[in-house]
Amino acid sequence: MRLAQPRHYLMCRPTHFDVVYSINPWMDPGKPVDTALAVAQWEQLRRTYLDLGHTVETVEPVPGLPDMVFAANGATVLDGRALVARFRDRERADEAPAYRERLLGLGLAEVATAGFVNEGEGDYLLCGDLLLAGTGFRSDPRSHAEAQEFFGRPVIGLTLVDPRFYHLDTALAVLDERTVAYYPEAFTPGSRAVLRRLFPDAVVATAEDAAVFGLNATSDGRHVVLPQNATALAEQLRDRGFEPIGLDLSELLKAGGSVKCCTLELRRA
């Protein structure tokens, strides 16, 4: 029997969601966007977390920042300390001060802004005592050493090679303190070897499930919230004793985000 652990999340309502520029292969400003549908899908995700017994804080959406809904990119929070993002793209740069202000308001022990490009939990995922850190498209590899010094946690660098999976959280999901799911072809051969060594019992996602952002998921150790179209991955999770909960976040996928992208975990201890 897998045990669920209560989580504390920060989310941002997609009040101003739109696709008006392109900074990843999923974004096409020429395609129509239904902001009301995006809000409804986001609300379903928030209600799911609340129904599972998790705590959800929110940050006020800022006009002119259509990607602010992707709260995971705003920071990494461990042991009550927050390392706020420094975004690669100017279109998202103003999200960092908004997340910094909100995190300061939550009474964390320390809130600092990254010196190198670092896109928060988009590229930093905690698994047990290890901080898995992505690079290749967004976060600067120099940010890995910075994060290790700030958090005092071992950082494992992983390099992404497929532009569709531009953040680590699009290609890898942490399921519990010892288990991950990932899509091998998103990584360099060396990074795949590291993942095999660290996680020999990992769930390996299919290309089809990766392509619908099935790995952009959250887990409380028992329940795994993921995109509903990742059906083969959901079946693998059931076989491992997890309880998958599929949701439709298809409107947000137009900007290259889904469940995990919308969810920043606040770890106070």
Question: How do you describe this structure in short?
Answer:
With 269 residues, the protein is an alpha/beta fold.
The CATH C-level class name: Alpha Beta
Give the radius of gyration: 17 Å
**Total count of domains:** 1
Structural class: alpha/beta
User: If you consult CATH, what is the topology?
Assistant: L-arginine/glycine Amidinotransferase, Chain A
| Secondary structure tally: strands | 15
Write down the overall mean pLDDT. Answer: 98
Strand order of the largest sheet: 2-1-15
Report the CATH superfamily.
Answer: L-arginine/glycine Amidinotransferase, Chain A
Q: What spatial form do the alpha-carbon principal axes imply? A: globular
Family: Belongs to the DDAH family.
Protein name: Arginine deiminase-related protein
Pfam family, one: DDAH_eukar
InterPro entries: DDAH-like
Q: Can you offer a commentary on this structure?
A:
This is Arginine deiminase-related protein. The protein has 269 residues and is α/β, with parallel strands linked by helices. It has one domain: L-arginine/glycine Amidinotransferase, Chain A. Helix content is 25%, strand content 21%. It contains 7 helices and 15 strands. The chain has helices at 35-51, 95-105, 142-151, 189-198, 207-211, 231-239, 250-253; strands spanning 8-11, 55-58, 75-78, 81-84, 110-113, 124-127, 130-135, 155-159, 172-174, 180-182, 203-204, 218-219, 223-227, 243-247, 264-265. It has a 3-stranded mixed sheet, with helices on one face. Helix 6 links the parallel strand 13 and strand 14. It is globular. The model has no long low-confidence stretch (mean pLDDT 98).
